[in-house]
Amino acid sequence: MPYVVYEAIYTPQPNAQYPQFTPADVRIRFGARAVHEFALIDHLKPQQVVACRAATEPVTCLPQDVTADVVPFDPERVAPVAPQIVGCAAIDSASQQDRLSRTRTEGSAISERFTFGEGSSALSPDASDTARAVAKRMADDPSLECVGVVGQTTPGESISLAEARARAVKQLLVSLGVDSRRLSTIAANAPVYGAASKTESAVDPANRRVSLSVLLQTAPAASTPPASP
Predict the structure, then answer these.
(1) Is residue 92 part of a domain?
(2) Residue 20: inside a domain, yes or no?
(3) Calpha distance 182→175 (Å, rounded)
(4) For 90, what's the count of Cα atoms within 13 Å in the CB-facing half-sphere?
(5) CATH code of residue 154
(6) Do 193 and 116 fall within a single domain?
(7) What's the pLDDT tens digit per position in 6-37?
(8) For residue 85, is it within any domain?
(9) 148: which DSSP letter?
(10) Residue 204 to residues 136, 172, 176, 196: CA-CA distances in angstroms?
């Protein structure tokens, strides 16, 4: 049965006079069945700062078990809520197929490209400007639910390099505010031709790139008209 677990970590600060007596980190876990995840989040939000305490025995200075004053979560008092599936995960979710069949639209094109040096997955100096344009478009258009980040190589380069290029671009987009759930990395090789029929396009440096492909685009939700006075 799937569970969700949140962990709070209390890190004692060292005392300059007694550095050898600094206790280890204390970890306190809060969990619930996955169907109660959002209710658990709502329960913990008002308790972001709580008191921690440790009882001491009269015969020792060493701290005992640390406890946190967190109100216990009672799943019996909340109704199970099905987790909302968003982003690329919706493509493979059986529960989302009806919604997607009703709202899927023809994917729009994304023209931005990220180019790389031979045998390298290092981002070029202009990658940040390109990524900002993509991040702004995705922020302005929530109907772009899933975008494929397609890493590509030229013949002679390994497929793992294509994966590394795609991951580098994804991490850059996430650092600019794009929800990672809306991005899916894909690795692809450029067409490989036989020695006798190799064409210039197969080894074109432009194929050492990462392109973006819209994998899932849905129609924006219809807005509810304001009520008449």
Answers:
(1) no
(2) yes
(3) 13
(4) 25
(5) 3.30.1330.60
(6) yes
(7) 888 888 888 888 878 777 787 888 888 877 88
(8) no
(9) E
(10) 30, 25, 30, 17
2/17 Cα distance (integer angstroms):
46
- pTM for the full model? 0.58
Domain hosting 8: range is 3-77
Q: Is residue 84 part of a domain?
A: no
Place of tokens 């809520």: 81
3-class DSSP state of 22: coil
* Cβ neighbours of 141 (radius 10 Å): 13
| 72 token code pair | 């216990």
Q: How many residues does the chain have?
A: 229
Closest CA to 32 of 41, 23, 24: 41
Phi, psi of 163 (to 5 degrees): -65, -45
In angstroms, the CA 155 to CA 193 distance is 9
Tens of pLDDT along 39-50? 888 888 888 888
Count of domains in the chain?
2
